[in-house]
Every structure is written in structure tokens, then in C-alpha cells.
Amino acid sequence: MTLREPAPPGGVSIALSVSDPAAATLAENRLSIPEGATTGLFNLVADEVVEPVAVIVSMTLGEQTVERRLSILPPTALLPSLDRISIVPQQILGGRTATGTVRLLEAAPASGAVVEVVSSSAAANPPAEVLIAPGARSADFAIPTSAVGADQTVRITVRLAGRERSAELVLKADVFGDVNQDGVVDSFDLADLLAATVGDYDPEADLDDDGDVDLDDLRILIELLESEGLGGSGGSGDLPLVARWIPVPRDDCEEIQGYRTADLYLGYLSPPSVVGVASPPVTGLSLENGAFYQHPLGNNDPPNPAVFDVAPCLRYDSHLTVGETMPLITPTFGTLDAADWGDNLVAEWLPSPGARIQVLQDPDFFGDDRHYVRILRVTVPVGVRSLTGTLETFTIAQGQNAVVDRDVVVHHCAACWGQYDLNADGVISDLDLEIMIALLGSDDEPEADLDGDGVVDLDDLRLLIAAIGT
To answer: Are 334 and 316 members of one domain?
Structure first.
């Protein structure tokens, strides 16, 4: 307590009291402040309460009384709040163990946080309590399960400080697609199913129940893996900019039957209004084992569609663009047509002033929700060993004025150039499938990254399956 002026000779004695002695206890009922002093201390012990309590502390000196409000909280009020519980996998073969994770919105206090765990069924048996360590925001715990005669959904609930969160765990009597019967559907099942296509009949691998284990079953398993979130999103994720090759079908040009055509797109998370591109010396787009195709009537600009009826192969001419516009190209490069680009494409190009670039957002065509701008078309021999490099880009997003400079890696797109024979034995077969399955998840195997997205995934496996027998 603080006095307005020093205590007089002999000091002062101040009477103390609380409005609820059951919630708070004073060590002494009076506070003495010696002569000349202005402050004094007293002790008050708050008792444990089950709900918040407001206590009035009164201090009386002569005819004057000062009151102060003190809030006493239950211990649970000091605990952090529950955020959520997650379970992996969300469905599992009964008898196997899943993993639960409980998360807090704030870090656990110095004493930690004990979370109660409850299961709605004896078929799933998590621990009764989980301790989240001091300073931590989460903790994992095992959820052992029992075999079930029929599929069963179990609710796992966690509770802390009067709050609770729940998640469901599906116990399967039999997991569809679990070829090797280990309780989960993963890439190991792909390998076992592939082995069953050439080995003894395995009913677990015959997913369509047609009496035969074949590529149709493999396609079903790929779709199942994708539905479980293990599909082919590639290496792009939330990257602000990606480069994508898209093959261009061609059936009306006999003179370049030994060539393949593909468009290169830049994919953005939000639509751009201006895009500029540079392919620098050495590190830019490089071609190994082949040359860019140049039509006799073509040049570096997008060809005129009005001529396609008389010169159908012109549509496959290698050229530069920015969203279907006629680009401005560096003068030194502008004199070189595609036939003279060489092994390393060295160029800078951007849209003409006032030109409106075409920005495409087509999930059915591209497989995602990005905004795409076409910047290049190339036609190259099927035997090209690689077409990769790093492009420099500058972009102005719609509604903004700031120019953003970014480098983007262009991966080799083996499928674009008809390269499916992973073991180079001259045949596209189950042996190539076996190699690709073993490489799933790799980001440094360009021969198996058929779609050129930077990662060997289920999209590449689907492309390889489609190529078998061609």
C-alpha cells in the first residue's frame, strides 16, 4: 500500500479485510507503516477455486477506506486452449496402430499440459492422458486398435480445461487396395501389384475382380492413392512461379514425324499483367542431342493461323511469345530464327507495348488452379536427351506496379519427347514400370519425371502406363 505523504511520528496502522475469506486469506489483519515511510507490504494467499471469483480487498486508515478488486482464477483458466486433434492414417486395418496428434493454440506452461483422451469404442485404445511438454504446442500418441469384423468408425476425443476436440478413425475389416496386407495403401502395394501381373494370381491384387491382375488394376490403385492424398501434385506446391511443358498433339504434318512438339507455360498463383522472359547464356534453356525445328515460312514470332490450311506444319514452328502476343525480342537475337538458335537458347523477350497477354486458368487442362502464360513452343527430335535450363522472368501482378524478378527452373519433360523406355531396352514394358515405382518421390531422376514437374509421382506413372504397347 502507498500513502500520499510520509507516515507521521509513531507511524500508522492500517486495517485490512477481504470480502470473501474462503477465496483469499490475509496473513495479518493490520499493516504497519513506520514513521517517515510511504509504502508497506502485506501478504494475501489466494485459495484454489473451481470458477473465477472476484474478491474486494479493503484498507482502512481512520475515516478513509480504499478498496481494490482482485480476480482469482481456477487453475484450468491458466492452461492453453486446445486447437485440434489429427489422426494418421484416417483409416486403418483393425489390429494396427494409428498415430494421434493433439495441438494447442499456445505453448504449454512450465508444468506442461495434461490432456485427457477418450475413445468411443474399445476397438481403439489410446492412452487415458497425454502430456504436452513445457513450452511445446503438440504431442503425438499411439492409438492401438483391435481387429474388427466389419468396418467401424471410432471417435477419439481430447479434453483440456473444459474444452474438447474430436477426430474420427475408420477401422477397416479389410483395406481395399492393400495388396500386401500391411494395413495401409502405399507405393509398396504398387510394387506388389505389378509383380502380380506377371506372377501367380493374387486375389488381393485383382481390384476389379475380373479374374486377372493387369494394368486396369494398377490404374485403380493409382486413383486410390490419389484419393488418399498421395497423388501427383508434383514439386510445385505453393511456389509463386513454375514452368510447365504441355505436349502439343500433332496428326497433320508428315514432314516432321520424327519430332515432338510442346508448349512451355509459366504458372502463377495470381494472374500477371506483364511478363518478360530471358534465357541467358550457359544457364538458359539448353538442348542436348538435336536441333529446334524451323518451318520454311516461320520465324521467332507466333505463326499466322490464316496460313495453316496451306502450310499445316507451320503451326508447329518453334517460336517465342508472351501469352499469344507478338513479342519484342532483343535485337541481337532477333536476327536468328529457330533453326539457328543452337544448343543454348539465348534470348530476351517481352510483350509489345499495349499488347494484352492471354492468361489461362483451366484446371482440367493444367491439373491445377494456377494462372498460365504461354511463352514458347518448340519442336525437337524424339531423340533429344534433355531440354532443361533456368529462365529469368520479371512480372507485374494485376493491380500492382512493382516488378518482381524471379528465376524458374525448366525441367526435362521426357513424355513430351516420347521418352518412356527407362531401361533403354527398346521396349516400353513392365520393367519400366518397376523402375518408376522404385523411383516414386525422387526429385533428381529426370528420365523418370515424364511430365517434367520436378518430381517422379503418380502422374508420371499414369503416363507410362498409357505408353505401354505404343
So the answer is: yes
Instruction: State whether 375 and 405 are in the same domain.
Output: yes
Q: How far is CA 437 from the centre of its chain?
A: 22
Instruction: State residue 333's pLDDT score.
Output: 62
Q: Is the pLDDT of residue 76 over 80?
A: no
- Note whether residue 7 is domain-resident: no
- Quote the mean pLDDT of the chain: 84
Q: What percent of the chain has pLDDT over 70?
A: 92
- 304 inside domain: yes
Take residue 126 and report the three cell numbers written for it.
489410446
Place of cell 550457359: 282
Query: Is residue 162 in some structural domain?
Result: yes
Question: In Å, what is the CA distance from 231 to each residue of 27, 158, 327, 360, 441?
Answer: 67, 31, 37, 24, 10
- Residue 64's contacts (CB-CB under 8 Å, 6 or more residues apart) are none
Q: Where are the beta strands (DSSP E) in 180-336?
A: 241-247, 259-268, 272-279, 286-288, 319-320, 327-329
Residue-wise pLDDT for 108-121, tens only, equals 888 788 999 999 99
CATH number at residue 106: 2.60.40.10
